[in-house]
Amino acid sequence: MHGTPGLCLQVAIARLTEAGRFAVWVTRAPYAGGYVHHDLEWPSELTQCWLAWQELFALHEPHQNLPGAAQLAKIHLDLGEPNFSGNRLMQELGVQLWNWLFSGPVAQTLAHSQGLAIGQNDCLRLRLECRDANLIPLPWEIMQPELGKSPITTSQRLFFSRTTSAVDSLKLSAASEYLRILLVLGEPDTPGQKCLALKQEADALQQAVKNGIQQSVRDPLTPNLSFKVTTLVQPTIQELVTTLQSESYNLFLYSGHGAPGPDGGYIYLAPGVTLSGTELAQALVRTGVILAVFNTCWSAQLSLGQEALHRSSLTEVLLHHGLPAVLGMRDSIADPEALSFIQSFMQAVASRKSVEEATAIARQELLTLFKFNQPAWTLPILYVHPEFSGSVIAPLADEPLEELTFIPTNLNPRRFPNARVRFIEDPELVTPVNGGLLRVGRHPDNDLVVGERWVSQHHGEIFCRETVASDGQGYRYFFRDFSRFGTCVYVEDSWQKIHHAELPLRMGTRLRFGSEIGPTLEFLLDVEDRSTTTPC
């Protein structure tokens, strides 16, 4: 599997009776006692809220195949002022979905799994499998534990995706050190649109992809990333297959018209040229594509009739045929929304983030730009193979151990001040600077071990040095960086990076090793020892 698997919790839902009794159980847990099972009824209040949500946000005929929907009239919930109705309804459905799914012993498993992830300074991957087709159209991505809390799919510590267990074992070759993208622009949504407009749209998409990748260069995790974007505009099936076979593409991006239906629906490559999801799957899997992204209406939508047809959405079909990860749209998405999402998503992927984390970051971008009470941020749906760890590009290999090049000298151990560092997120985690020296890094032989992947094996050190200042002789603490990606220091309300340099430490100096998204540590001096030092 690519990358570091991390902690994963997988939850499945299946219908037990036509009357609306379901089973919710854990099919994969990060600890032995987490495999629990829970039976429960589907509440009519949840069906009512789902119907109301569709009435406000859905761009298609409402899905009414949930228990009790036929007996329930569409309602208008008492949501307060009209300007806030969308926001309140979005949260209300999210809370109800959360409370239903995470109830009983399943809630305890989630809490315990999150605790394990926090204890290991890791993130938890939560994957949901809906074995009842009528539950798949529900926007599980908007789940949130309480009103006012963040939705599950925008969390920085809990990464959400959908999955299925009814797949063959995943066979992947070694992960690539490069990013190769095949961008395909198919038939436009508007019949008769001129080729010139298509070319302009292709240019806009290609520029969004390149902008995202180029912005990732600022991220310390992506030094010298090799990437290439190949664009096809309204190709024939033969042109598409030939291009896929000509080079090892690890990411396939399609933008154009699509329609739901059995066997994954259809994408429209060119006027009169269609390709079913099953046919597309053969080409993508055979040529080793890892991730497929569809800027296509209904690409994550089932074939809906009197009953939802299981395994009929394009995203599910591709996953069942062996693609490691597929991202599609639950409904129609506008061009500005799609371009914003793709640029942010590509930046995160090029920064070697997992597909789950990249989707969460891009979804946050949509939420910020197009507002919480609009459906844009709810549209992307990510499916991940249960054996896929999420990495499109190979993680950076650990660098060889660096030799420590500085050890404090001429230091009187009876005179230098006591100091310590603590984690801001967990103030109980305190490490003293014993003997005037604290070595920091990912390797276990450090005094302070920080296990983030962007932290070097031997990242840097905090040391005390005797100094002579205008107010007399004394001791001061410094941090010296000799890492691969540098160290971030909080100065004047912003994070600034130092690399292979020394930094004087003052009371309360805050540091992040390797990346701005890492844990924050604070440098502290003991009050009783301040008189023995020059001001820090």
Explain what this protein looks like in three dimensions:
- The chain has 536 residues and is of the alpha/beta class.
- Helix content is 24%, strand content 27%.
- The protein has helices at 44-57, 85-101, 105-119, 195-215, 237-246, 277-286, 314-320, 335-350, 355-370; strands at residues 7-17, 21-28, 37-41, 124-130, 158-162, 178-185, 226-233, 251-255, 258-259, 266-270, 273-276, 291-295, 303-304, 308-309, 325-329, 380-384, 419-423, 430-432, 437-441, 448-449, 460-469, 472-481, 487-491, 494-498, 502-504, 510-513, 521-525.
- The relative contact order is 0.10.
- Residues 73-84, 192-196, 398-414, 468-472 and 528-536 have low confidence and may be disordered.
Total beta strand runs: 27
Largest β-sheet summary: 6 strands, mixed
Molecular shape = globular
Number of helices: 9
What are the low-pLDDT stretches, counting only 5+ consecutive residues below 50? 73-84, 192-196, 398-414, 468-472, 528-536
How far is the N terminus from the C terminus?
A: 48 Å
Provide the structure class: alpha/beta
What is Rg?
26 Å
Mean pLDDT metric: 81
**Strand ordering within the main sheet:** 7-6-8-12-15-16
State the main characteristics.
536 residues, alpha/beta, 6-stranded mixed sheet, 27 strands, disordered C terminus
Write the layout of secondary structure elements.
Elements: E1 7-17, E2 21-28, E3 37-41, H1 44-57, H2 85-101, H3 105-119, E4 124-130, E5 158-162, E6 178-185, H4 195-215, E7 226-233, H5 237-246, E8 251-255, E9 258-259, E10 266-270, E11 273-276, H6 277-286, E12 291-295, E13 303-304, E14 308-309, H7 314-320, E15 325-329, H8 335-350, H9 355-370, E16 380-384, E17 419-423, E18 430-432, E19 437-441, E20 448-449, E21 460-469, E22 472-481, E23 487-491, E24 494-498, E25 502-504, E26 510-513, E27 521-525
Parallel strand pairs: 1-4, 4-5, 6-7, 6-8, 8-12, 12-15, 19-20
Antiparallel strand pairs: 1-2, 2-3, 9-10, 10-11, 13-14, 15-16, 17-18, 17-27, 19-21, 21-22, 22-25, 23-24, 23-26, 26-27
Helix pairs in contact: 1-2, 4-8, 6-7, 8-9
